Amino acid sequence: MSGPSVLFDLPGPGARRRQRIGTVVGSLVVLGLVALALWRLGTHGQLEPERWAILFDPATGVPQALWQGLLNTLAVAAVGMVLATVLGALLAMGRLSDHGWVRAPVGVVIEFFRAVPLLILILFCLLFLPTVGVPMTAFRALVLGLTLYNMAVLAEIFRAGILSVDRGQREAAFALGMRKTQVMTLVLLPQAVRRMLPVLVAQLVVLLKDSSLGFIVGYVELLRTARSLVEFFNFSYGNRYTFVLYVAAGLIYIVVNLLLSALARYVEARTRRNAKAAAAGEGELPADVQMGGGGGAVPVAR
Amino acid sequence: MQFISDNSDLLWSAWLTTLSLAVASGVCALVLGTVLAGMRVSPVPPLRGLATFYVEVFRNTPLTVVFFFLFFGLVYVDLQFPSRFTTAVAALSLYTASFVSEALRSGINAVPPGQAEAARALGLGFGQTLRTVVLPQAFRTVVPPLGNVWIALAKNTSIAAGFAVTDLTAALQRLANLNADQLLAVFAAVVLGYLVITLPSAWLIRVVENRVAIVR
């Protein structure tokens, strides 16, 4: 928010005093709740320093396991992102094709994969594909599911990007005697990708978030790692380390995603400064896409 | 087809669970998201900070992790939801509320400043300005994004299956184990169950959008 808001007058002395009192009371309530939660944790002995020490003690193997879990998460997200981007670009071109027999089936493919819950897609890859002779692991099923869903989302993003390039660019390229493929690869795509870059990075955050679905299908990503560590420790120590490990896994997710979101904002800010791309205006992902796990059936067209 | 009619009871109750999960979380998320959006534009800085913190945290947490914490983490602060269903509703609402709030905030920003200025000139306070002038217009402009959030929410309910809520996806896993030879039919039936919710919603959103859109 920049400058004074139009929604309210600048608070006068009386209002400022009320706000200060409210702030103090509110903070006390919030602090009280936090203290209550901490106290409850403390009475269960969850805050003992030695419980948290296992997170940083290499001798227990916990830091290595969590690191490996994070790497597995990132591996799925990276492979899925590359495949989804390539396939998404191809689908986008198919959807913009001059030939109806290409456009129609590609449109059906995109709409179908956007309308099905991601978890169902992953389960389909995991349960059905082996019965028709495709060897499947949890990793492949997860990558395939993420790819199928995200390629459809990215196809729509690419399409919107290509359509947002000024019509004159395309006409000028044709006037210079370029062929359809040349116009697309040499003129339209480079400009579209530049505009779509912030959205692409934002989509990486979504994909990374969605990779936590591996927990449900049994891929040993971060969350599943925490769970199996908990089960392992339960064997010898009871549920002594349960809370510690879950909190650690959750925090790692939040930190990694916040970093990626910050990267997305940085890329967006860079693109905004670029005069040519500034014309593209909004680089914001539609909310349904950001939510992950499904996306909307309503087209992204803007 | 034989198998669909054999399991129609299971599928029907699973579909109802999915639908009620989506509707209950949708309503809660709408209320919570509206409050958060109001806080984000409010004149009180701590409220703005609190709402921003909430939205940033929940937008960057995977929904699975939110579920995970509510199901396995809350017991450590001696809290417990009465049932798995309510826990799932809570997880979905908390997560979705941050997206509702973001959508609404963009809608509030899209209301022409003159509206709020006129409201203030008439002597309305912040709450009155927001309730009677700005929010009614904001809601009209954000019908499409809110609709998309709703559709995504309907699909996100499938994650509850991983936490022992007997929704459509859980029915899928169960039927897939029992009818290994008819997997394709199982998947078709379950996907159809989701499409029955999402496709009419998409259509309804377009209708509502056309009816309430403000031409500027």
**Main sheet makeup of chain A:** none
CATH H level, superfamily name of chain B:
MetI-like
Name the overall outline of chain A.
flat
Helix content of chain A: over 70%
Number of domains of chain A: 1
**Class of chain A, according to the CATH hierarchy?**
Mainly Alpha
Explain what the structure shows.
- The complex is a heterodimer of chains A (302) and B (216).
- Chain A is an all-alpha fold and 302 residues long.
- Chain A contains 13 helices and no strands.
- In chain A, α3 (62-95) packs antiparallel against α4.
- The model of chain A is unreliable at 277-284 and 293-302 (pLDDT under 50).
- Chain B is mostly helical and 216 residues long.
- Chain B contains 10 helices and no strands.
- Chain B has a single domain, classed as MetI-like fold (Orthogonal Bundle).
- The longest helix of chain B is centred in the first third of the chain and has 33 residues, at 8-40.
- The chains are: A mainly alpha (302), B mainly alpha (216).
- At the A-B interface, α1, α5, α8, α11 and α13 of A face α3, α4, α5, α6 and α7 of B.
